[in-house]
Each structure stands twice: as structure tokens, then as C-alpha cells.
Specification:
- The protein has two domains: about 10-345, no CATH class; about 350-475, no CATH class.
- The chain is elongated and about 75 Å long.
- The chain has helices at about 10-30, 40-50, 70-75, 85-110, 125, 130-135, 140-155, 160-175, 180-185, 205-225, 230-235, 240-255, 270-290, 305-315, 320-345, 350-365, 375-380, 395-400, 410-415, 445-450, 455-460; strands spanning about 370, 385-390, 420-425, 460-465, 470-475.
- The protein has a five-stranded mixed beta sheet with strand order 2-1-3-5-4.
- The chain is mostly helical.
- The chain has 21 helices and five strands.
- Helix content is about 55%, strand content about 5%.
- Helix 4 (about 85-110) packs parallel to helix 7 (about 140-155) and helix 8 (about 160-175) packs parallel to helix 10 (about 205-225).
- Strand 1 (about 370), helix 17 (about 375-380) and strand 2 form a beta-alpha-beta unit.
- The longest helix is centred in the N-terminal third of the chain and has 28 residues, at about 85-110.
């Protein structure tokens, strides 16, 4: 039986909290250069808010629902006065601060679990987690979502059931795929002996409401403002359950849940730990149904990894020491593989993006309307109107057939939108050919654009990025 929080903050508590914070900071600092292109989409929205232009991706375009965590640009706007890159830096700092604080509370929750000292071995999963480290500093909302979910799991263990439900609901408000997880967390029985355990049966219904009201409020706001309750990305990126199942399985093997494979320890866990374990399975099912994700380092799984670490501690506190050592070793093997295999490359993504922005800023100068698939870095390199070929910020393109990298863009759309510049990414190892339309481009939609009849006569090569893995071609209209 776990011990509820007695509210006392002792020197030991501060020490344990510092240990958790340090374990979280290790991978975060090692991967501090990580980011993804989508982080700069939110940053551009924030920059336009800071300039008084409103909630929009294009300065003089329509206000669109191009940010899945509705309202995230509002958080960044106070820091975005000098542009998207400033907003990105602020997002990275906010994310790592929030996660570090949450990790300290997670360590305290692990400390309050009674039983064998082997439970502290779960903190190794925290220190070795590339997804937690990378996504806390990526500049996406994910760092904040990780922190909220970690606090939800930890405060539930510490006996603060309503706070736990509210925090879970806030995480689900930012990331819709977390709604099932939040509902399960809200239904978890409080630890025996805590004040919450003595509350009447209807308190569970109240907690469920606390967990579901935030995402419901976001959905109703979207419906009122944009005409649909779901984010635009749902239309732009149709789900594929088969890909989602593969994604979920890969994440299970690489991010730490192998530490939870302890069926014999199930009956020794208390009600809260059992439901927390159940919530992890529910979330893996949800992301499989959602179709997974294209972003590296298991982004959609990262928010529930603190819950994985807490449950691993709960199991270690009651399980055989040899079995615990084997489970933790298997989980660490997956984590270390990801950290050592992907980490060195991920750590330099941000630096490469900044170099790309600076390299192509001049060739993009003077452009009025640019069509491209990767619009995040592009939005930091130019103030021009951007036609988003993925449809993430453009409702008219989002509903076109195909996935976000394979939209069936009508040939007439380039003329109809007044496109005077196109930016395409060459396939890995491909050299630009003559004519440029004979080149192999990285994604289906780019190949479709290049194969539009007569396009080689209308657009000529203005510049090409020489950066490895980021060989973009800038094409300018000649007539």
C-alpha cells in the first residue's frame, strides 16, 4: 500500500526532488539543439500575434486553425516580438523548465511509494530517456504536455486526486489523443489513507468532469471560431491504423514500457497503480488508432513516459529483485539504443535549421507568395505569404485527397494563389538535374508539383541549399 502525501517538505524531500530534476536535465541538456519544423509554425503564429496581426500563419491571410494545441501561440506571443526564432527559443526554455519541475515531483512520488529500494532504479529510465529529453526542449508544446502529464500521475500517487484529474485534463486540452488517458487517470482510486479516499462516490464523477472539461472547452472554441471541433491537422493527416500499430509497437520497445512486463506483480499493486498501468495501455491504443506520427523520438508517447517510470517504480517496490533488474535492463537497452543511435543527429537539428534559414533568406527576398511543404523554417526565412502544400495551416488544401506529404494539388492552384516562388526538397543523395523537373524530390506532393506540364518553363532555379539532408531548391517564376 502506497503512502499518501502528508504535506511535509523535509530536507530529504528536497534532495529527492533535486535528484529527479537532475535526472531529467541530463538528456535535455544533451539534446538541447533538437527541434522539428512544426515548432516554427506555432512560432510564426506567435510572431504575428506579437505584431498585432492576429491568430494567423500568413500576416495578411485568413485566421486558420494551424496549431493543434489551440492557444499555444498565445503563450509564446510575449516573447515573439523579434520574430519566430525568438518564439522558438522561448518555447524551448519554457518546456525544459516545466519538465524539470515536474520531474522533481515525479521523484518525490517515487520516494513515497513504500517497499523495496529497487524502486529508485526507475529513475534510470528518466535519465536515459531521449524522448523526454528531446521533446522537453524541442520548442513544441510537447514539453509542457509532458510536464502536465507527469504532474497528473505524481499528484494522483501523492493523494491529490482532483488536482491529478485537472492536470490530466489540461494535458488532453493541448493534445487530443490524450483524452482517453486523462479519463482513465481521473477514474483512478486515490491511495488508501489519503483525504481523497474518504470522499463520497460522486467525487469520481467530479474528477472525470475536471479531466474532460478542458478538452471539451477547446473543441467548442474550435467549433465556434473555425467551424469544426477537431484540429485542422486531423483533416490534413488522415489516420492509418496499420502504421499506427507499427508506431506504437516500436515506441513500446524503445521508450521504456518493457519495464512494466510483470504480470505476477499485478495483484500486489494497489488500485491507483493498477489504473495507472491501465492508462498506459489505453494511450498506446489511442495513438495506434490515431495513426502514429512522422516525427522522430516517439513524440506521441513522450507525455505518458513519466507515468511509465512511476509504474515501473511501483512494480519494482513489490517484485523480485532479479526480475526487476532484468526488466529495467531491457527497458534501458531500448532507451540507450535510441539515445545513442538518434541522439547525436537530433542534437544538431536546430543548428542545421538556423543555417538553412540564413542560407536561403536572401534568395527568398522579394518573394510574394511561396508554395512549399516544409513551412516552419520557411516562415522564419521570409515574411511572404506561404501556400502550405501539406494543408496543416490551409483548410482548402487540408481536405484534398492524400496524406500531408501526398496531397493532390490541382495544377491551377499555383496560378490561382499567385505563387511566384516554389521550394522543393530533393531526395536523399539526389543531385539537381537539367531540366530541374527531371530531378527526384523527397515527397509525393513535390514530385507531383515538378511533373506539372510546362512548369520548367514558368519557374527557374534561383538557389539550392548545399546542406546535407536539407537540399532545398528555390524556384522563381519567370513568366
Amino acid at each position: 500500500m502506497a503512502q499518501p502525501d502528508d504535506g511535509k517538505i523535509t530536507r530529504r524531500t528536497w534532495g529527492i526532488a533535486a535528484l529527479g530534476a537532475a535526472a531529467a536535465l541530463l538528456p535535455a541538456l544533451a539534446l538541447r539543439g533538437f527541434t522539428v519544423d512544426d515548432a516554427l509554425i506555432s512560432a510564426r503564429y506567435a510572431a504575428h500575434l506579437a505584431r498585432g496581426l492576429g491568430y494567423r500563419f500568413n500576416a495578411f491571410g485568413a485566421s486558420t486553425d494551424g496549431v493543434t494545441p489551440l492557444g499555444w501561440p498565445l503563450v509564446l506571443a510575449p516573447f515573439a516580438g523579434s520574430g519566430p526564432l525568438a518564439a522558438l527559443l522561448a518555447a524551448k526554455i519554457l518546456g525544459v523548465i516545466a519538465w524539470t519541475i515536474a520531474a522533481s515531483v515525479l521523484a518525490v512520488a517515487i520516494d513515497r511509494v513504500p517497499g523495496k529500494r529497487a524502486r529508485y532504479a526507475a529513475l534510470l529510465l528518466l535519465a536515459a530517456s531521449a524522448p523526454l529529453g528531446a521533446w522537453s526542449v524541442a520548442g513544441m508544446e510537447t514539453g509542457l504536455v509532458i510536464a502536465l502529464a507527469a504532474l497528473a500521475a505524481s499528484t494522483g500517487r501523492l493523494g491529490h486526486a482532483r488536482a491529478s484529474a485537472t492536470l490530466a485534463g489540461l494535458s488532453a486540452a493541448l493534445r487530443p489523443e490524450m483524452i482517453p488517458w486523462a479519463a482513465v487517470i481521473a477514474a483512478a482510486p486515490p491511495p488508501a489513507g489519503s483525504p481523497a479516499a474518504a470522499r463520497p462516490p460522486w467525487d469520481r464523477a467530479l474528477r472525470l468532469a475536471l479531466a474532460l472539461l478542458p478538452p471539451l472547452a477547446v473543441a467548442l472554441t474550435r467549433l465556434a471560431v473555425f467551424g469544426r471541433p477537431a484540429p485542422l491537422s486531423v483533416l490534413a493527416k488522415p489516420s492509418d491504423s496499420l502504421l499506427g500499430a507499427r508506431y506504437a509497437l516500436a515506441c513500446f520497445l524503445l521508450t521504456g514500457p518493457l519495464a512494466l512486463l510483470a504480470p505476477l506483480a499485478w495483484r500486489r499493486l494497489d488500485g491507483y497503480a493498477r489504473v495507472l498501468l491501465l492508462s498506459i495501455g489505453v494511450h498506446f491504443t489511442a495513438i495506434a488508432v490515431a495513426g502514429g506520427d512522422w516525427m522522430p523520438l516517439s513524440r506521441l508517447v513522450a507525455p505518458i513516459l513519466p507515468a511509465v517510470i512511476l509504474v515501473a517504480a511501483e512494480i519494482a517496490a513489490v517484485a523480485d529483485l532479479r526480475a526487476t533488474a532484468l526488466r529495467i535492463a531491457l527497458a534501458l537497452a531500448g532507451e540507450l539504443f535510441q539515445l545513442l543511435k538518434v541522439g547525436p543527429v537530433a542534437a544538431h537539428v536546430g543548428e542545421a535549421r538556423v543555417q538553412l534559414i540564413e542560407a536561403l533568406r536572401t534568395p527568398l527576398a522579394g518573394a510574394l507568395v511561396v508554395a512549399a511543404l516544409d513551412i516552419g523554417w520557411l516562415g522564419a526565412a521570409t515574411d511572404a505569404t506561404i501556400v502550405d502544400l501539406a494543408g496543416l495551416t490551409d483548410p482548402a488544401i487540408a481536405v484534398l485527397p492524400g496524406g500531408h506529404t501526398s496531397k493532390a494539388i490541382p495544377a491551377a492552384m499555383l496560378d490561382a494563389r499567385g505563387v511566384d516562388t516554389i521550394v522543393l526538397l530533393l531526395s536523399e543523395g539526389e543531385l539537381l538535374r537539367s531540366p530541374w523537373t527531371a530531378s527526384q524530390f523527397a515527397r509525393v506532393v513535390e514530385m507531383r508539383i515538378a511533373r506539372i506540364p510546362g512548369l520548367e518553363e514558368e519557374f527557374q532555379v534561383e538557389a539550392e541549399s548545399a546542406m546535407p539532408h536539407l537540399r532545398y531548391v528555390v524556384l522563381k517564376r519567370t513568366k
